[in-house]
Specification:
With about 260 residues, the protein is of the alpha/beta class. The chain contains nine helices and 13 strands. The two termini are about 30 Å apart.
Length: about 260
């Protein structure tokens, strides 16, 4: 499921909407698959809820957008270096990240869960994960949460470059549990191997200082005009029903959150 990046790999999204839309906005997504938000189909085209939402938000905000895949652990440096202009890769709005970059308004917010081996007694608490081997993707709010709450009691915390690698180690029995976004893990649990091996053990206690305030568009500091355009786009798709229409194609209920 790893992605090959080439300079030519870019998907133009959005519509021209007046003179202000002349700006071509390079929107960075994670090069690693993260279904159902973003992944490549058999033809190599990027598909998923977030891919469709990028197109809709850019169109509603009067922007012409181009998708550029970037390795997840280098996506913020790519933004600050000017290689991309925005990040739409399920990036949570956190105080730590806001020291370096800015964010738009949120465009979704879902719970965080722990998934573990079927039949193994545990829950999504420090007590429930005492002595367990926990897997988590690097450079995510989930890694920060696991290190804060579970690492002191876990047998080991193993980190992975992609969520899929963590999932596969759980299937193989090399770890006992993983923590990630509930929607992303729903997709894993819907696969034959996920159904066979694993189950949701619970939702972690919320900590907005670590898990953030929802997912937003990551932007360079000072890009107020671009931020306003993305906020206009987010408000527009929420108001005209586009957001709900796209969401209904992937999820049984809204993921906008509180």
């Amino acid at each position: 499921m790893k992605k090959n990046m080439t300079a030519a790999l870019a998907l133009t999204l959005g519509l021209m909407a007046g003179a202000a839309s002349a700006q071509n906005v390079k929107v960075g997504i994670a090069a690693e698959a993260y279904p159902p938000f973003a992944s490549q189909d058999a033809s190599g085209a990027w598909v998923g809820w977030e891919v469709e939402m990028i197109g809709a938000i850019c169109a509603a905000g009067g922007l012409t957008c181009e998708i550029v895949p970037v390795a997840w652990d280098g996506i913020i440096p790519a933004l600050t270096a000017g290689q991309i202009d925005a990040i739409m890769a399920s990036m949570s709005i956190t105080e730590e990240r806001m020291k370096t970059i800015d964010f738009s308004d949120k465009y979704y917010n879902t719970p965080t869960v722990v998934v573990g081996t079927k039949g193994m007694e545990m829950d999504a608490t420090p007590e429930g994960l005492t002595g367990k081997i926990i897997g988590v993707q690097v450079s995510t709010v989930h890694q920060a949460y696991v290190e804060k709450y579970f690492a002191p009691v876990a047998a080991e915390v193993k980190t992975y470059q992609t969520q899929d690698e963590a999932n596969q180690d759980l299937v193989a029995g090399r770890i006992d549990a993983i923590q990630a976004d509930s929607i992303a893990l729903d997709a894993f649990l819907a696969t034959p191997e996920g159904q066979a091996c694993c189950e949701v053990k619970g939702t972690v206690a919320d900590d907005p200082s670590v898990l953030g305030l929802g997912v937003g568009v990551g932007l360079r500091k000072g890009e107020e005009e671009l931020k306003a355009a993305f906020n206009k786009g987010i408000a527009g798709v929420l108001a005209d029903g586009t957001y709900d229409k796209i969401t209904a194609g992937y999820f049984a209920s809204s993921i906008y959150g509180n």
